[in-house]
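can u do me a favor
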């Protein structure tokens, strides 16, 4: 309903969707040089696995991190990586999501989840819902 009544909030809906359930939950990387994080020494060449989904739900950064809030103030998400590994397609992906959400709800204004409590995201490297049942007449 929000994306129909307030189209200017579509970018916020996209950002909050990417924060709450990013398309990639874990990013494998290799430690480039000897370093220390949180008092733990890590040697160059050590395989690392960064939990992007967990970072995007850090309660010290996002109050009530498990709640979807399209009006949440913008923060720096890790959904598309960071630094030299930042996804070059992130701007296109965000715009595609905005357009897709807009077209979907303009064409099907009464679209609603049939089982809102039954939507579960799974997968680690690439993730999404196993099923997404919807209905046209809420």
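np, heres the sequence
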């Amino acid at each position: 309903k929000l994306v129909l009544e307030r189209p200017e909030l579509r970018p916020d809906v996209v950002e909050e969707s990417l924060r709450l359930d990013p398309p990639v939950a874990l990013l494998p990387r290799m430690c480039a040089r000897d370093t220390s994080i949180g008092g733990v020494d890590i040697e160059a060449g050590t395989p690392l696995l960064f939990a992007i989904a967990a970072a995007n739900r850090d309660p010290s950064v996002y109050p009530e991190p498990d709640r979807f809030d399209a009006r949440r103030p913008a923060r720096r998400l890790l959904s598309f990586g960071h630094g030299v590994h930042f996804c070059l397609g992130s701007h296109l992906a965000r715009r595609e999501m905005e357009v897709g959400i807009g077209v979907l709800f303009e064409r099907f204004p009464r679209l609603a989840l049939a089982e809102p409590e039954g939507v579960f995201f799974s997968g680690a490297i690439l993730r999404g819902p196993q099923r997404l049942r919807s209905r046209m007449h809420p």
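The chain has a mean pLDDT of 89. hope that helps!!
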